[in-house]
Design brief:
Elements lengths: L3 E8 L8 E8 L6 E10 L2 H9 L13 E9 L11 E5 L13 E5 L3 E3 L6 H4 L3 H14 L6 E5 L4 H12 L3 E6 L4 H7 L3 E4 L4 H8 L4 E6 L11 E9 L13 E4 L9 H12 L7 E5 L4 H10 L5 E5 L1
Parallel strand pairs: 8-9, 8-11, 9-10, 11-12, 12-13, 14-15
Antiparallel strand pairs: 1-2, 3-4, 3-6, 3-15, 4-5, 5-7
Helix pairs in contact: 3-4
Length: 314
């Protein structure tokens, strides 16, 4: 084994999509407990846009985005016995490390962040699961609802929400999610028990079917204070991208979910793989782009309205 060069999506400076270009990165041998993956597909997520806009403090550019990769095992480090060279795998990746994120031809990651892809899934489909699946899993564990309790979900037709709904149903929860009329059947197919209209009146719509309010809320649509009214007194609310109110109302616990803390939860990744293999979690690709078109992939992602994730394909 030896160090090699690989093409990667590079953020040359903080800015708009125009700062994205293909760069060459040096990829090292895997160390103890690590795996080197030949990446076939890497999903594009909202976190990649934040990375492009702000860069990474204390790490010189170019920065490589991407928190989800799927490909084949190319080499394993000392002590790694779960994988064989050539095996198809998916991985959760921290893009803020000096080596960068998932959108590169070759990456080295902790073996704890890697599991085989779900049965029946393509590498492109598998690349949509790790980070968003872990985000959904962490949020639900943080809420700690009991079977039979009610979870409200904003952004019901989106990819993260689809994983939240699927995992919530596995946990025995009643799920109320929002959708536009044309997406109602789709959201029901994820497992939602009740679908309410998407819009500014989310809280009122939830209260119509759960008068006391939902026991927990997973706010994937970033409605923030516009959604908190859907939660019962002393309930819980999970937010993404760090939002937390200055003064939570009615004893509601608001918890931003930080997926960086759980990228090496192999047990959770295995659970996600198992549920996707059984069709309980739906893996959806909304478009495929070569690394040379990473800027367009981010524009499409940022425009919203996708029913899945666009992926960079090497």
């Amino acid at each position: 084994m030896s160090t090699k060069e690989a093409r990667a999506v590079g953020i040359t400076a903080p800015g708009g999509p125009e700062v994205l270009e293909v760069v060459r990165r040096e990829v090292r041998d895997p160390g103890p407990g690590e795996v080197r993956i030949a990446v076939r597909a890497a999903a594009v997520n909202p976190t990649d846009i934040g990375l492009r806009q702000r860069g990474v403090e204390d790490v010189p550019p170019p920065w490589t985005p991407g928190m989800d990769a799927a490909g084949t095992v190319e080499a394993v480090g000392e002590g790694v016995d779960r994988f064989e060279v050539g095996e198809e795998v998916m991985a959760a990746v921290n893009p803020r490390r000096p080596e960068g994120g998932a959108q590169a031809e070759f990456i080295v990651v902790p073996a704890a962040s890697v599991v085989p892809i779900p049965e029946g899934a393509t590498l492109q489909q598998a690349s949509t699961l790790p980070m968003n699946g872990l985000t959904a899993r962490l949020g639900l564990e943080t809420l700690a609802l009991e079977p039979g309790q009610t979870l409200a979900v904003t952004g019901g037709a989106g990819l993260l929400a689809s994983y939240v709904i699927g995992l919530a149903k596995e946990a025995g929860l009643r799920v109320i999610a929002d959708a536009r009329p044309e997406d109602e059947d789709l959201v029901k197919s994820y497992g939602a028990d009740v679908v309410v209209p998407r819009g500014e009146d989310f809280a009122a719509a939830v209260r119509e079917v759960a008068p006391e309010g939902a026991d927990g809320l997973f706010d994937t649509a970033l409605l923030h204070e516009r959604a908190i009214g859907a939660v019962r007194d002393s309930g819980g609310m999970i937010t993404v991208r760090g939002w937390r109110p200055e003064q939570p109302e009615r004893g509601i616990r608001v918890e931003p979910v930080m997926v960086f803390r759980v990228l090496e939860r192999t047990d959770w990744l295995e659970e996600l793989r198992r549920l996707a293999s059984k069709g309980r979690l739906r893996l959806r690709v909304a478009g495929e782009y070569p690394p040379e078109e990473a800027a367009e992939a981010q524009r499409v992602m940022d425009a919203g309205g996708l029913r899945g994730r666009v992926v960079i394909v090497f």
